[in-house]
Design goal:
mainly beta, Immunoglobulin-like, 4 domains, four-stranded mixed beta sheet, 48% strand
Length: 330
């Protein structure tokens, strides 16, 4: 008589296993003890989809074990082999970069070699805050590259792009200016159009030793304009303001003078006050062909005074000194 057997075997799997890969590797060999299976029949066959010592890729793999007896009764169990990826990717950035601004621009087009990133998993995503071939403004900008793998491991590198402005501003002064003194003054009020300055940076400061609408003294004065940008680049222009004095001095001579000689004399000493001369320049030279206190002979003599300023403008006046002769009656 045959005996019907319906009691399944019993099999117990190991606990879940975590195996870290070697550095730079994406796999790891996992070893475990073969599960023991028992059956009331005393005969049991154990099979599995993996064997101990298998090389597993990063991730989690389910290992299934099946136990069966000759009557076809079965039991199964499973556990997980996990190969975690805890290794960061590797990325190396270029060295720091210095570039000069493009001509007439406040930026520079900067290129570099795209950094390569590697990861033991074989899969890495690279992102950056700037792409090579971008325009960078004057100053220093930090560029970073971020490398990440599918398992959340990250590496970061960075470098600095420095854009240097060495381009001078541009400023053009007016032509030289000539002006005549204002009436009665030793100066002239001189105006001109304020020069415009430009710079590639878009920011320029203009200073001058004189402002338009200033009073300038007689003679030549150099006016300069200085244009500077925030980065120490400078341009300079200059022109000359010449103030011409064409206003003559003013001189007023005394009235004509009559002086009788002493009895028995044919001459007389004549005195007068030196004429006052004025000039808008404040400087005037007075000359004469005679001086007060000169001895004059009988007759009429013209006395001339000449007033001149440093610019060559002249005024003159004259008066007569008369020494009358005495009348003798016999």
């Amino acid at each position: 008589m045959s005996v019907y057997h319906d009691e399944p075997p019993t099999i117990l799997c190991p606990e879940n296993i975590d195996v870290a890969p070697e550095k730079g590797e994406a796999t790891a060999v996992a070893n475990w003890s073969q599960p023991n299976a028992t059956d009331n029949s005393g005969y049991v066959t154990v099979t599995s989809d993996y064997v101990s010592g298998t090389e597993f890729s990063i991730g989690s793999t389910s290992i299934h074990y099946n136990a069966s007896d000759p009557s076809g009764n079965e039991d199964s169990c499973q556990f997980n082999v996990t190969v975690p990826d805890v290794e960061n990717p590797s990325i190396i950035c270029p060295e720091d970069i210095e570039e000069y601004t493009d001509l007439g621009e406040d930026t520079a087009l900067v290129t570099w070699s795209q950094p390569n990133a590697t990861d033991n998993s074989g899969s890495v995503t690279v992102t950056s805050n700037y792409q090579q071939g971008s325009n960078f403004v004057i100053g220093s900008t930090v560029v970073y590259y971020n490398a990440s793998d599918p398992y959340g491991n990250v590496d970061l590198c960075l470098f600095t792009v420095t854009v240097i402005d060495v381009e001078n501003p541009s400023i053009i002064c007016p032509e030289d200016i000539e002006e005549y003194t204002d009436l009665g003054e030793d100066t002239a009020l001189v105006t001109w159009s304020q020069p415009n300055a430009t710079d590639n940076s878009g920011s320029v400061t203009v200073t001058s030793n004189y402002q338009q609408g200033s009073n300038f003294v007689i003679g030549s004065t150099v006016v300069y304009y200085n244009a500077s940008d925030p980065y120490g680049n400078v341009d300079l222009c200059l022109f000359t303001v010449t103030v011409i004095d064409d206003e003559p001095p003013t001189i007023l001579c005394p009235e004509n003078i009559d002086v009788a000689p002493e009895p028995g004399e044919a001459t007389a000493v004549v005195n007068w006050s030196q004429p006052n001369a004025t000039d808008n320049s404040g400087y005037v030279t007075v000359t004469s062909d005679y001086e007060s206190g000169t001895e004059f002979s009988i007759g009429s003599t013209s006395i001339h005074y000449n007033a001149s300023d440093p610019s060559g403008n002249v005024d003159s006046c004259q008066f007569n000194v008369t020494v009358p002769g005495r009348l003798f009656i016999l």
